[in-house]
Each structure stands twice: as C-alpha cells, then as structure tokens.
Amino acid sequence: MNSPKSASLPVFPWDTLTDVTAIARAHRDGIVDLSVGTPVDDVAPVIRAALAAASATPGYPTTAGTPELRASIHAALQRRFGITGVDPAAVLPVIGTKELIAWLPTLLGLGSDDTVVIPELAYPTYDVGARLAGAQVLAADSLTQIGPQAPALLFLNSPSNPSGKVLGLDHLRKVVGWARERGVLIASDECYLGLAWDAAPLSVLHPSVCDGDHTGLLAIHSLSKSSSLAGYRAGFVAGDASVVAELLAVRKHAGMMVPGPIQAAMVAALDDDDHVAVQRERYAQRRAVLLSALRGAGFTVDHSEAGLYLWATRGEPCRDTVTWLAQRGILVAPGEFYGPAGAQHVRVALTATDERIAAAAERLV
Ligand SMILES: Cc1ncc(COP(=O)(O)O)c(C=O)c1O
Fold this sequence. Notes:
Blueprint: H1 18-25, E1 32-33, H2 45-53, H3 67-81, E2 91-94, H4 97-107, E3 115-118, H5 125-133, E4 136-139, H6 143-146, E5 153-157, H7 169-182, E6 185-189, H8 207-210, E7 217-222, E8 235-239, H9 241-254, H10 260-271, H11 274-296, E9 300-302, E10 309-313, H12 318-326, E11 330-331, E12 333-334, E13 345-349, H13 354-364
Parallel strand pairs: 1-11, 3-4, 3-5, 5-6, 6-7
Antiparallel strand pairs: 2-8, 7-8, 9-10, 10-13, 12-13
Helix pairs in contact: 1-12, 2-10, 3-10, 4-5, 11-13
The chain binds pyridoxal-5'-phosphate.
C-alpha cells in the first residue's frame, strides 16, 4: 500500500473527547450528552410502519430511487420550503448526507488543481471530502477572501452547524450571482432548514434566491434531524439537472444505493409533515430551557437563531469550558472541532430527552 489514505485526513475529532467523557459519566446522576447531536426521540409510527411493510422486498433497489420517492422529495421541497421549479429528474436519494458530502468532490472528478471553499466554521466533512479527492481547501466566509480565483465547488451551510447562523437573502443572492459569473458549483447543505427559531432561513433553490434558475446549484437535505432518521441513513440532493445526472451516473457504478425499505420509509417521512412539526416543537422547548440555563450560568450564546445547537462561550479556551461542563456531568463539543474561529466556543446540542435537558439546566444553576 502507498501512504494510507487515512494519513491525509485529520484526527477523528470525537476520539479526543475520551477523558472528558469519563469525567461527565462519573456524575452521580449520570451524563447529559449534548455532544454529537444524535436524535433520541423514537422514529414516528407512520415511518416505522412503512419500513416494516417494505421489509420483505428481496430485490436490489435502484440508485435513482423509486418513482414514489422521487415524487415525494419533489413535493416536500415545494410544500415545506417553497422551492418551485425543481426538474423532477433532478432529485437523487443518498445514504445519509455525510456520505454525499464526503464523496461529492470525488464524484465530481475534482483533484489537486481544484479548490473547494468551505465556511470558516464548518461541519468537518466538507474538508474531509475535499481531502479524499486530493483537492485544495479554502475556509472563507466572504467572497473577497476568495479573490479572483474560480474554485470548483463552494459549500454553504445555512442554518450553520455549529453556530446556528442564518445567511440572509442578500448574501445568498450575492454568492449565487458571483458563482454563476465564474462557473462555480454551489453545494448548499440545508439539513437544518426546517429548524428555524429567530430567523427565516432560505434554500439556495428558493425562487427569491436563484430567480428560479437552478443552474450550478445543489441543495443537500437530510432526514436525520427533521424526522429523527439518523439511524436509517436517509437524505437527498436536488438542483442542477445536469450535475444530478452526473452524480447518478457515477453512483450507479459505485453501488451507492439507498436500501429499498429505507426508500419506502423516506416516502412516508416526506409525505407527512405532522411528525416533523412535533419534532421541531420538542427541540424548541429543549432550546428554551438550555438557552436560559446557559445564560443564567454566565454564558454568552452567539448566533443560534436556527438549527440544532447553541453556540456558547465563557470567553475562555473551549477545552476549559468543555471540562467545566463535564465536571457538571454535561458533555458538549469544543468549538475548535469546527475551525480556529471556534476556539472560545462550545457547541451544545438540543438532542437529549426532556428529562436529561432538565437535569442539565438544574446542574447549571
Ligand atoms: C451540517 C451537517 N451536514 C450534514 C450532516 C450529516 O447528516 P446525515 O449524514 O445524518 O444526513 C450533519 C450531521 O450532523 C451536519 O451537521
């Protein structure tokens, strides 16, 4: 073997939390784990029934997804997010969006001559995906930082993981116009679009952003958080018909198919907005409890106007804050996982049961 591929990748960040996890676990009333952000609420009965009903199907699924799933994706984008004009052929299910993000630069054929722009504070897989393809990475939040070059791919993430920041209409329009002039492909990771609290996030495919023209635009959507389907691995991408067709062409060869029963479960999830509203309300209540508890304990909470996290600081190095919270049995993610700009913040996930969230709030008093 030449040099192992893993050598080109960063240390897996969560592996660095072993010591503080042990501290938090030692709390007499048990750990409150607000670190990874994994859903804890049961999958909705309507989705489980669809999964069970499809569980006897023995055959291979198709990479493109069933006609029912493709239609459900199309309809949900319009109904939930006001996204009109999506070419019915320009939707593609993926095995969770982490998979798509990690392999997108490779699937697009990018290499060492190409640059991938990622947000300064970002979900780590954007960087990993660029590295897997051997592409260059530039962390930049403003177009002036990018300069005259034309990167091959630019990731947007609004609402942001980790900060909960929402990009406004003017900003999105500016980036789309800039990308179009230069032929830059935009991949907009919109997995928290439905979790809006104090702001109204917009899809890059929304007509007010792109004037109904999806050329050079991809929207990436996950069912992991909106429908608590992280364990099912269910997401999709939609947008520029020629790019989606290219992704499909490569993914067919690479065996990247969403399992058939999961496709059936996705249809049920996408067709039903009630369970999404119930889940959103659970997170709204947990957010209210944690927000006031953190502020009461002297934290400043920045951004966090949407999404699944509170972006909090005590004005000290983030690892100190992580330890301080672990001593109270609360495990959170250090902001440095998401880039140097997070050095003094921690990311507090809203994903714990109501009972555990209440326990965390009590410990912060
Ligand atoms: C910004 C962002 N994008 C993508 C993902 C991946 O989600 P999944 O692979 O579960 O669809 C996550 C997961 O936390 C995320 O925070």
